[in-house]
């Protein structure tokens, strides 16, 4: 084994130095996902308690991932500015309060409002990406980010496996309420602990911050306009949600409110575009020195890739329990356990995506994994009630292995683009994962599950083409300016 290889190994059983930060941070993410998806394995009971229609249930699933879109953008900016320590603690405490409130909801409007607000907890993912990038060098970025994301994502599986049983243990008509509230209490307590247990950087290291707030810095005129285009889907996804709740669908509010939301989203986009210009107006006056340039198209490709990988995960985690129960007429507990197998694979698949990226190259890994995503979801689209249940579970496992490894590969590359903006880049890429969740769940509300799975396969094929044509392997070094004005070169390969 070469010295470089030995240095790239991580001792997972260590709880000192950067490994301590990794373990504390992936567990913070784990708890945030438990809170975020605490409702999914209990949705059958919630549906019966409140007498919800099929469309109301699907609207709740969409609402659950909608807030995360703007939250990840805002939190990405805030974490670059204030650091991950205070941001992750704040997110856990606030989301824990929302979770307890959700468990006390008395009608559908309260359920929907609190599920929308709870989407905020999904922004915690962005915070951990910045924290891990501060504590691990480029040669370990893939595996460290993969462990963080994969083991943290397991929180949704933990909810699926534990909460139905916990609800039964509490017993009574309100057992599900106590089970969900328990996750909120855990989040609040761990948020307080995390604040006192970590630091933003290793001792003596510099925490690089963006020069300006309000938007991401780009380094060319083309990238500026690409940035404006890439920002549109974030507002479009929220517009789709408003349409879903309009008189044309669920009739949750009237046309005047719907059009008001459309107008507000348009105004916010224009305001954000102005802020982006303010941050980047110097590029229209003089060229950025080559040493500080980066290619924003790489961010755009990673956005699309995560839209498919994490977007499909959000959608499947939300719909698999009901899919198994309604298609194969099995018990709620068994449906929850079988559905939990899908996110459980995050434990190995997402870190594996990072490890493979570190060893064989970022672009090559993404190319292979997206080929697998397109083919495996096309196979899953053939499933119906005539299939043997174990075969369906195996097929979802194959889909999960490719998509979750794909998520690991995406975030093996994200921290290597521009260090001081890692939070903002991770925020935008993470937001695209939620855009994918909204898009796929919206598609599901109109088509059969077979067509839904085929749509994911088609999206995977499109992104595969974008990776092959536009993605480039990170290499060399990136430059960052120290507080004293000197330049530090950071290895990215």
Task: Provide an overview of this structure.
- By secondary structure, the protein is mostly helical.
- The chain has a single domain, classed as MFS general substrate transporter like domains (Growth Hormone, Chain: A, Up-down Bundle).
- It has helices at 3-8, 17-36, 43-50, 54-66, 68-82, 84-103, 108-118, 124-135, 138-170, 175-197, 221-244, 255-280, 296-328, 332-344, 346-360, 362-380, 389-413, 422-444, 449-470, and strands at 477-481, 487-491.
- Strands 1-2 form a two-stranded antiparallel sheet.
- Helix 11 (221-244) runs parallel beside helix 18 and helix 16 (362-380) packs antiparallel against helix 19 (449-470).
- Residues 1-7 have low confidence and may be disordered.
Helix and strand topology:
Layout: H1 3-8, H2 17-36, H3 43-50, H4 54-66, H5 68-82, H6 84-103, H7 108-118, H8 124-135, H9 138-170, H10 175-197, H11 221-244, H12 255-280, H13 296-328, H14 332-344, H15 346-360, H16 362-380, H17 389-413, H18 422-444, H19 449-470, E1 477-481, E2 487-491
Antiparallel strand pairs: 1-2
Helix pairs in contact: 2-6, 2-8, 2-9, 2-10, 4-7, 4-11, 4-18, 5-6, 5-8, 5-18, 6-7, 6-8, 6-10, 8-9, 8-18, 9-10, 9-14, 9-15, 9-17, 11-12, 11-18, 13-14, 13-17, 13-18, 13-19, 14-17, 15-16, 15-17, 16-17, 16-19
